[in-house]
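Please check this one:

***
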Amino acid sequence: MSGAVGKAGINIGLWQKGSFCSASKNYKHFLKFFLPSPGVIISFIFYFKKSIMNTCTESTRRNILFAVMLASFLTPFAGSALSAALPDVGRAYGAGPDSLAWILQSFLLGCIVFMLPVGKVTEKVGCRLVFMAGMAVFVISALIAPLQTEYAGFLASRALQGLGSAMIFATNNSILSLTFPPEKRGFAMGWNISMVFLGSTLGPCVSGLANFYFGWRSIFWIFAAVGSLALAFSFVSMRDPMRLPHTGKGADWIGIVLYGLSMLLTMGGLAEISRCDWAVWAFTGGIVLAVLLVVLERRVPDDKAVLPTRLFSTNRMFAGSTLAAVINFAGVFAELFLVSLYLQSVLGFSSREAGLILLLHPLPMCLLSPLMGSLSDRVGCTRLCCIGMAVITLGLAAVGACVFFRQFWPLLPALAATGVGSAFFGAPNNSAIMGSVNREQYGIASAMLGAARLVGQSLSMALAGVVLTMKWPGLAPRDLLALDIIIAFAVMTVLTAIGIFASALRQPAKGPAA
């Protein structure tokens, strides 16, 4: 991927000043209209809280939801925030461009390696303890990361931050499912996922400003401050231990080790597969261990197994919804990265202007997710998920066509369409997963939901990395990059089209999850 970036002459600093290309003067009023301000962001967050207060009649449920929303905002915020400060972090530690990706990848690996084991621990000790311990780990890692003098220590701190995020994501949906009745589960999931989208959106923006004015270490102080607020609010609002019904004893340590190693080798290999020869062997070894894990876990009792193989084989709603989640994130996650390259390196926009244009994708997700979650409580999840995946497929195809014909204005509704489709899909699919399992399975179901998201995101970025390293003789650098982006969007469109069938063919269940 780094080769493609170099050959196209790309500079992706979100807040870097730049000028439009000669044909971009007509877009200035459009960009000014969408320019976010701190007042708009603060008003948006208070709108979240006010709507929850007006909708939830019980103060306990309202406070728990707001605490979970704060934590759900923080973890994707931490995952995306450092992207604008990578060059400065690299200079501070003397790290080359090829190793900077591990600042983001170490966080991602920390999340995915520990996600399912944390889910099993949740079944034994309760959601509240794991959730608050995850918040504490997150805050501590945010405090110690900028104090590290060696690059290896800094990466270890980021991996520890990933562990804290895994503890949060493995429990947040369980907490909401335990707190809200089935007829209001979609409502809670909608508000929660809207904060996930908001955190992913504001991460690069806020970190770019903080890095410009106060240095990259200030980003971690923001992590610690927001994390401390969420931890304090959780401590006040969550009084019940939120234990899940569980009768099993012991732990499947062989399964836990195999799962951790398989995810480490597979995801680590994917991250380097376009640059290093050893990555292919690491990825292959991870796949072999994953197959071995599935075979062994089928012989382990359900109350001990770290991977719920029987749940996948006997519960079509759970299996189909989880598969659809992986496909959704694999097809959509790399979209903003690829569109950013197209806007800057093909059309000539500055990175700041490209960042503002890209807000057209997450804004519909933030605004519509609560509505779609509430709607899924009344009409069911399958229909909304199918509509969402169909809209995403059409949007991705339209974006690829815009790149092919070198168009800008048609790109705007195409970006918004993928955001609208993601809103239709996200909260209803989460509600379907949590509604398809029994109360005692909430822990592992919530962990599987988080793992599906992370696996899909990793696959999406790996796909983008592989495609962007393709060589086509006889093409200028700009044309070469555009062709690679078109191929990537074609593959992503096919993936999400398959996701329509994955959403439609899952076994309907009675109630809101259907």
